[in-house]
């Protein structure tokens, strides 16, 4: 055969490269390079098939898919398709096929299906690897490059004065004319920004300014293929508007429709990203334009305006504003600050002011050499991931781009402005090790705590409240989605949902995508949330301040590292994270081991409600600490060719799996043989239950490969990519869950000691206040102090003389790192707070507030800057001036002394252990409730399924005569001369069950188990009331009557009725 091939290709040493291979006794082939056209020479059983056929396609498809896949993996932008590889191939084949079939008598083309060849030819990997290194690839890459260039040239622009077909373009009057080099195209972030720009153009005119709005963010073209670029509407519009031509090197802008390109976006992080993406596009395809002085500009608008009297200060970056505010300190309180989230916040009048002072707002980007191009490539190339990690690791808080200058280098933009977006993107994607929350989740929890949210509220309303009270600057739709995620409780979501789902928050059927709209569902704090996030810790946290209001803390500090309880996933700039869920009890046990000075025990992923297996894989690398697991669903063979699937791997959703089963019933590839005959479903939204009927002749194949493998019931989970922000805001890799607990433990223990000291301080302050109140009342009752008909100043002189202490009117918890405004309990002032007990409503508000955690770490709204006075005494109600109240206060004082003694004796570990025990008790009670719900659902399903089976058996028995008579005389099928032969006995006898079922369906008039014919014969029915015991055994609820079918033991095998249960 090889000698025959050489007759076509010439000698091996001087002809084109070639590779021979022989597979088994029936297949041998050779592959060589061709010159841009596919060629084949093939033989089937020594018959020359000059037109090829299925045997040629069989081998060619294997080669082309492998080569195209490897090339696309190495050359991301090549976009090589199998057909391109095929056009550079010459293949020779000699094979032997059983019972070949040809399209004509001349036998020039084989058209027999590959499944009927009688043998297989899987090309060895060694052959494919050698082929990958052959010269055929060079020509394929050359063809791909040619096609890419041709694709990219599509939509090239030209210089012309009139441009049509781009409706949203407001073209400059001079664009494309003799003054085009003086024209500026303004690219805006959305339609509202375009309107603002149009308003501003009323000042400078429309002759030399055009406006075009971008829809969101531009495509990152750095690693995109040619097809993606050419099909991107935004890019094609920009090419047309500017008159850009692919591959052209520009030395000036005379051939363009516009001489300048100005970017006008919001001054937030996303606006910086859009600017960077436009730079990246120009640097990738038109680098010469970036080097032209004055071509690329930006129009900056304020992100913050501070007003005081007639003085107005503008800030173009948040770090710049923060630095000013920190410098002023307390003096900044007198300024009226307004945050400009987007360009849409500015008014038309402000737009005219911006454009009226255009030199101040217009900044020019300048090219300083290779470092500029290097910086742009580093920020956007997928090949520079490690460089981006280094770049972000060197980020220093407070970095900002100085907008007081007129010229900005590209490198400065990337390193001082673009880096802020990348850092913010990272913080939005990677949670904190301490609380397991991302910023959006933390804002939601903050507002729920602030509202003391114990009653249901619409998710849409909560989202609006969070946006208002936590300075959330993104869409409320995204916020509502985050709220839904915090409340989801199906298998594979949260082990402990922090919010309670009241309504349809999504199920495992679609992985939460089936959640109802935010305006239809309600939520509140879960009963476990405050056991995990203790109220007494609230005042210890560092609360952030934005737009003049205190918002969520830098991080919360729950009693457990919640990132291990509920897991986390995210993809940010430079880093991604994937953390499995773990059992809260295992986490508690390991924390207690650390308290006792014992080593931790390894923890393994655990998902509440998951009934499959989690098996740890052996580690190949000796020094590797991270662990890998195989998560397997549950399946077993119930009959000869039936498989029952009762659990899926974690995060393999039921609907997706059902669609995959459909592909096994009817494969997309016509040459592929089906694996499944049919399947039925018996699951609900909380559990999984598929009954699958396998093609009988393929059952041995399933058993050999194992059911779990063949039905894709296993996936991998590992701990190798657990990236989290630590307490200092530094991103850190944790190889195992035990490492996370190890980092969490010392800080949490330190904060327990802080809590103890804070509680001591608060109780002592409360004790001091009670003593003062009791002595004040006693003085008034005894007549030592007169308060009526006197001036306040005179009374205060007496109080000073008698030695009363000046205190704030309302005492809160101890001031935390966040300063005033961050309350211990953090509630709204007077909104949804717990009501004081009846009879105490008029008592000292200070005492009531203290007992409930207070309204602010720095005092109430009645005291200025925590000022001390006698108001807490003078504002007491008349009801308080009684002997009974004195006795009550004395009892309270004794209680305070006991609390002080208890706190002085206790320790941080003891406090932590008590919190853990309280949590475990509440968790156990909560878990019992959840398990009871699941059990009720399962019992209902079992009962419904039992009824379905009873109906099916009755239908089978009643239709037995008709079925048997239909079966009589079928050639090669079941024959019966007796009209009393039952359908059940035929099935039990194993006589062609598939055929029997088909006939039974027909006789019943349609769907399985739903027949309405066959009437009342042969059933032997009777009504009987089940005993309580029997009802409990089969999951029935009791107090119902059931129709029972009186059948002999050998009449019907229950397992054969599984197909019909879904119809009930």
From TrEMBL:
<dbReference type="InterPro" id="IPR013506">
    <property type="entry name" value="Topo_IIA_bsu_dom2"/>
</dbReference>
<keyword id="KW-0238">DNA-binding</keyword>
<dbReference type="InterPro" id="IPR013758">
    <property type="entry name" value="Topo_IIA_A/C_ab"/>
</dbReference>
<comment type="function">
    <text>Control of topological states of DNA by transient breakage and subsequent rejoining of DNA strands. Topoisomerase II makes double-strand breaks.</text>
</comment>
<comment type="subunit">
    <text>Homodimer.</text>
</comment>
<dbReference type="Pfam" id="PF16898">
    <property type="entry name" value="TOPRIM_C"/>
</dbReference>
<feature type="region of interest" description="Disordered">
    <location>
        <begin position="945"/>
        <end position="965"/>
    </location>
</feature>
<dbReference type="GO" id="GO:0005634">
    <property type="term" value="C:nucleus"/>
</dbReference>
<dbReference type="InterPro" id="IPR050634">
    <property type="entry name" value="DNA_Topoisomerase_II"/>
</dbReference>
<dbReference type="InterPro" id="IPR013757">
    <property type="entry name" value="Topo_IIA_A_a_sf"/>
</dbReference>
<dbReference type="InterPro" id="IPR001154">
    <property type="entry name" value="TopoII_euk"/>
</dbReference>
<feature type="active site" description="O-(5'-phospho-DNA)-tyrosine intermediate">
    <location>
        <position position="520"/>
    </location>
</feature>
<keyword id="KW-0479">Metal-binding</keyword>
<feature type="region of interest" description="Disordered">
    <location>
        <begin position="1001"/>
        <end position="1064"/>
    </location>
</feature>
<dbReference type="InterPro" id="IPR031660">
    <property type="entry name" value="TOPRIM_C"/>
</dbReference>
<dbReference type="InterPro" id="IPR013759">
    <property type="entry name" value="Topo_IIA_B_C"/>
</dbReference>
<comment type="similarity">
    <text>Belongs to the type II topoisomerase family.</text>
</comment>
<dbReference type="InterPro" id="IPR013760">
    <property type="entry name" value="Topo_IIA-like_dom_sf"/>
</dbReference>
<feature type="compositionally biased region" description="Low complexity">
    <location>
        <begin position="953"/>
        <end position="965"/>
    </location>
</feature>
<dbReference type="InterPro" id="IPR020568">
    <property type="entry name" value="Ribosomal_Su5_D2-typ_SF"/>
</dbReference>
<dbReference type="InterPro" id="IPR018522">
    <property type="entry name" value="TopoIIA_CS"/>
</dbReference>
<dbReference type="Pfam" id="PF01751">
    <property type="entry name" value="Toprim"/>
</dbReference>
<dbReference type="InterPro" id="IPR002205">
    <property type="entry name" value="Topo_IIA_dom_A"/>
</dbReference>
<keyword id="KW-0175">Coiled coil</keyword>
<feature type="compositionally biased region" description="Gly residues">
    <location>
        <begin position="813"/>
        <end position="828"/>
    </location>
</feature>
<keyword id="KW-0547">Nucleotide-binding</keyword>
<keyword id="KW-0067">ATP-binding</keyword>
<keyword id="KW-0413">Isomerase</keyword>
<keyword id="KW-0799">Topoisomerase</keyword>
<dbReference type="GO" id="GO:0005524">
    <property type="term" value="F:ATP binding"/>
</dbReference>
<feature type="compositionally biased region" description="Acidic residues">
    <location>
        <begin position="831"/>
        <end position="843"/>
    </location>
</feature>
<protein>
    <recommendedName>
        <fullName>DNA topoisomerase 2</fullName>
        <ecNumber>5.6.2.2</ecNumber>
    </recommendedName>
</protein>
<dbReference type="GO" id="GO:0003677">
    <property type="term" value="F:DNA binding"/>
</dbReference>
<dbReference type="InterPro" id="IPR006171">
    <property type="entry name" value="TOPRIM_dom"/>
</dbReference>
<dbReference type="GO" id="GO:0003918">
    <property type="term" value="F:DNA topoisomerase type II (double strand cut, ATP-hydrolyzing) activity"/>
</dbReference>
<dbReference type="InterPro" id="IPR001241">
    <property type="entry name" value="Topo_IIA"/>
</dbReference>
<dbReference type="InterPro" id="IPR034157">
    <property type="entry name" value="TOPRIM_TopoII"/>
</dbReference>
<dbReference type="GO" id="GO:0000819">
    <property type="term" value="P:sister chromatid segregation"/>
</dbReference>
<dbReference type="GO" id="GO:0006265">
    <property type="term" value="P:DNA topological change"/>
</dbReference>
<dbReference type="InterPro" id="IPR014721">
    <property type="entry name" value="Ribsml_uS5_D2-typ_fold_subgr"/>
</dbReference>
<feature type="compositionally biased region" description="Acidic residues">
    <location>
        <begin position="1033"/>
        <end position="1064"/>
    </location>
</feature>
<dbReference type="GO" id="GO:0046872">
    <property type="term" value="F:metal ion binding"/>
</dbReference>
């Amino acid at each position: 055969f090889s000698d025959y091939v050489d007759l076509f290709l010439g000698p091996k040493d001087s002809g084109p490269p070639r590779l021979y291979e022989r597979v088994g006794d029936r297949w041998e082939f050779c592959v060589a390079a061709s010159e841009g056209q596919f060629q084949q020479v093939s033989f089937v059983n020594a018959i020359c098939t000059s037109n090829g056929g299925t045997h040629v396609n069989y081998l060619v498809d294997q080669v082309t898919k492998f080569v195209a896949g490897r090339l696309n993996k190495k050359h991301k932008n090549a976009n090589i398709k199998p057909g391109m590889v095929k056009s550079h191939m010459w293949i020779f084949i000699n094979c032997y096929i059983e019972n070949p079939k040809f399209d004509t008598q001349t036998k020039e083309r084989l058209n027999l299906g590959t499944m009927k060849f009688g043998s297989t030819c899987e090309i060895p990997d060694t052959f494919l690897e050698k082929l990958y290194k052959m010269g055929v690839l060079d020509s394929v890459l050359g063809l791909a490059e040619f096609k890419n260039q041709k694709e990219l040239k599509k939509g090239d622009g030209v210089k012309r004065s009139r441009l049509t077909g781009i409706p949203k373009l407001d073209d400059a009057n001079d664009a494309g004319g003799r003054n085009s080099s003086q024209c500026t195209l303004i690219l805006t972030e959305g339609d509202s920004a375009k309107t603002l720009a149009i308003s501003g153009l009323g000042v400078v005119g429309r002759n030399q300014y055009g406006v075009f709005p971008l829809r969101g963010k531009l495509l990152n073209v750095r690693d995109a293929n040619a097809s993606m670029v050419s099909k991107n509407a935004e890019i094609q519009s920009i090419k047309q508007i500017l008159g850009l031509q692919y591959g052209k090197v520009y030395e000036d802008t005379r051939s363009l429709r516009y001489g300048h390109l100005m970017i006008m976006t919001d001054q937030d992080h996303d606006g910086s990203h859009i600017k960077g993406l436009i730079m990246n596009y120009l640097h990738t395809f038109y680098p010469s334009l970036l080097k032209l002085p004055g071509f690329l500009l930006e129009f900056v608008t304020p992100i913050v305006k501070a007003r005081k009297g007639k003085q107005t200060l503008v800030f173009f970056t948040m770090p710049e504003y923060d630095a000013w505010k920190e410098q002023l300190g307390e003096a900044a309180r007198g300024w009226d600050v307004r945050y400009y989230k987007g360009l849409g916040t500015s008014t038309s009048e402000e737009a005219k002011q911006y454009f009226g002072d255009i030199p101040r707002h217009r900044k020019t980007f300048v090219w300083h050499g290779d470092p500029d191009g290097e910086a742009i490539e580093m920020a956007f190339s997928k090949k520079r991931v490690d460089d981006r990690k280094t770049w972000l690791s060197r980020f220093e808080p407070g970095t900002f781009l100085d907008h007081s200058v007129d010229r900005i280098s590209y490198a400065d933009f990337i390193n001082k402005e673009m880096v802020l977006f990348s850092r913010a993107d990272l913080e939005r994607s990677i949670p904190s090790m301490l609380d397991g929350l991302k910023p959006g989740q933390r804002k939601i929890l903050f507002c729920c705590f602030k509202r003391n949210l114990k009653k249901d509220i619409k998710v849409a309303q909560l989202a609006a409240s969070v946006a208002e009270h936590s300075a959330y600057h993104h869409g409320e739709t995204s916020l509502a989605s985050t709220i839904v995620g915090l409340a989801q409780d199906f298998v594979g979501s949260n082990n402990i949902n922090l919010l309670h789902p009241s309504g349809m928050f999504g199920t495992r059927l679609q992985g939460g995508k089936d959640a109802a709209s935010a305006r239809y569902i309600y939520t509140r704090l879960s009963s476990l949330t405050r056991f995990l996030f203790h109220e007494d810790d609230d005042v210890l946290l560092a609360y952030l301040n934005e737009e003049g209001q205190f918002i969520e803390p830098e991080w919360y500090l729950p009693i457990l590292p919640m990132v291990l309880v509920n897991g986390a996933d995210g993809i940010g700039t430079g880093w991604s994270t994937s953390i499995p869920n773990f059992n809260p009890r295992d986490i508690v046990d390991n924390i207690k081991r650390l308290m006792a000075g014992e080593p931790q025990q390894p923890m393994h992923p655990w998902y509440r409600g998951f009934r499959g297996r989690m098996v740890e894989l052996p580690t190949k690398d000796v020094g590797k600490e991270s662990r890998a697991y195989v998560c397997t669903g549950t399946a077993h063979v119930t009959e000869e060719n039936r498989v029952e699937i009762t659990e899926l791997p974690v995060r393999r959703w039921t609907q997706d799996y059902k669609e995959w089963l459909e592909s096994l019933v009817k494969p997309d590839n016509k040459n592929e043989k089906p694996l499944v005959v049919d399947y039925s479903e018996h699951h609900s939204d909380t559990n999984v239950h598929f009954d699958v009927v396998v093609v009988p002749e393929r059952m041995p194949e399933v058993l050999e490969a194992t059911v779990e493998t063949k039905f894709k019931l296993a996936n991998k989970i590992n701990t190798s990519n657990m990236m989290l922000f630590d307490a200092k805001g530094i991103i850190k890799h944790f190889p195992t869950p035990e490492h996370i607990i190890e980092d969490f433990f010392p800080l949490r223990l330190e904060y327990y000691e802080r809590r103890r000291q804070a509680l001591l301080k608060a109780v002592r302050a409360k004790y001091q206040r009670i003593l003062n109140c009791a002595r004040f009342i006693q003085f008034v009752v005894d007549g030592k102090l007169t308060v009526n008909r006197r001036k306040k100043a005179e009374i205060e002189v007496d109080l000073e003389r008698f030695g009363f202490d000046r205190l704030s009117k309302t005492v809160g918890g101890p001031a935390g790192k966040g300063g005033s405004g961050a309350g211990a309990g953090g509630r709204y002032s007077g909104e949804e707070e717990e009501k004081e007990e009846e009879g105490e409503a008029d008592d000292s508000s200070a005492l009531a507030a203290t007992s409930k955690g207070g309204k602010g770490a720095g005092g109430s709204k009645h005291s200025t800057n925590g000022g001390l006075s006698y108001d807490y005494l003078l504002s007491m109600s008349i009801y308080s001036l009684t002997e009974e109240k004195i006795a009550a206060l004395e009892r309270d004082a004794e209680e305070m002394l006991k609390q002080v003694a208890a706190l002085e004796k206790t320790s941080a570990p003891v406090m932590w252990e008590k919190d853990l025990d309280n949590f475990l008790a509440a968790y156990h009670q909560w878990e019992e409730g959840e398990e009871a719900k699941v059990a009720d659902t399962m019992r209902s399903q079992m009962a419904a399924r039992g009824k379905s089976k009873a109906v099916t058996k009755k239908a089978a028995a009643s239709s037995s005569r008709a079925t048997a008579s239909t079966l009589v005389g079928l050639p090669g099928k079941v024959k019966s001369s007796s009209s009393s032969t039952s359908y059940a006995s035929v099935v039990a006898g194993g006589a062609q069950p598939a055929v029997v079922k088909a006939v039974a369906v027909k006789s019943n008039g349609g769907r399985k188990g739903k027949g309405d014919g066959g009437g009342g014969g042969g059933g032997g029915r009777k009504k009987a009331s089940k005993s309580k015991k029997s009802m409990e055994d089969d999951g029935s609820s009791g107090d119902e009557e059931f129709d029972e079918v009186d059948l002999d033991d050998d009449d019907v095998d229950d397992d054969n009725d599984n197909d019909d249960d879904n119809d009930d």
